[in-house]
Amino acid sequence: xxxxxxxxxxxxxxxxxxxxxxxxxxxxxxxxxxxxxxxxxxxxxxxxxxxxxxxxxxxxxxxxxxxxxxxxxxxxxxxxxxxxxxxxxxxxxxxxxxxxxxxxxxxxxxxxxxxxxxxxxxxxxxxxxxxxxxxxxxxxxxxxxxxxxxxxxxxxxxxxxxxxxxxxxxxxxxxxxxxxxxxxxxxxxxxxxxxxxxxxxxxxxxxxxxxxxxxxxxxxxxxxxxxxxxxxxxxxxxxxxxxxxxxxxxxxxxxxxxxxxxxxxxxxxxxxxxxxxxxxxxxxxxxxxxxxxxxxxxxxxxxxxxxxxxxxxxxxxxxxxxxxxxxxxxxxxxxxxxxxxxxxxxxxxxxxxxxxxxxxxxxxxxxxxxxxxxxxxxxxxxxxxxxxxxxxxxxxxxxxxxxxxxxxxxxxxxxxxxxxxxxxxxxxxxxxxxx
Length: 435
Fold this sequence. Notes:
Helix content is about 75%, strand content about 0%. It has 20 helices and no strands.
């Protein structure tokens, strides 16, 4: 096949009319994955970081950027090269015991995360308009599931892309917070380490928030979906001539997505550092706590847009969390999977997706504290992330998995560095738990 085939496999023949339209056509799984990383629970983590440690923690976001970009690109390459997601490849090349352990941990962590995110979204809406939080939890869950099940896949992807705009609420909140830019720049570019429990706890929480297993599963599976929708595109191990263009697109898409994710995280840290930390408010348990504390410190405008941002990011993150759980379970059990399939063509896949959301919703109606549950979710994510990352790195280097395109060079080195960093983070989380 000629190079023309590879061009058609990665781009549509319909020309985009302007630079913004071309940008929207270029971004895809990587951008949506990066944006969904800033979910309400992540916003709570970044808010706590800024409130407790001020601008001194900002540099961590620059440190995590290459690590998360590398591991997400590797996940995307596995999906695009093999034509299967992470769970599908695990089921083919590794023992069933490892597969089922990873899938169960991922499903449990995602359910808890969904519950915490829905709770935060409901609390944010209650802050703005009043009313009953349980009703809002159910309504948000129905909206998230309804959009996935009933919208056409290409239309749903467009909805997700537009939903990412809600994250700019945090950029607006930052500019409303009168940030001292000299102090902010110093914190961003000059690493500062405090030998204290609070600092290392926050550092581990940020690492656990930015590098999460559900992001690997989602981006890999979305690469498979995108490939299946394009008639001339094939898994790269069977069509290696398509690889140069595909890998360039994946890298650009992933770099933009992860940069966007960390830019928003920096905006949240700067906002809370300039307002809450300055005012002596250092104990933030959730994203809604941050929104409530912002009103006296930064004014009504910052409070409103911060609260609206929580709801917007939740509408993006909850479907990704539920979807990644469904992909993991479906691929492990060899079910028909994919958001491009109609519900009747993948009943078990959509049922799993709905079950993950329903179980997350149910947390609101139990004695379980969603914030404490989120802490356990972070530990589970940390425990789950390390074996998944190790197996991903091993798979990506195997010719029987990747064909003529095994992972090598600086991307392989950066992927292992990311894995080792996450392993150290997980050990720290578990040690903190026991101590």
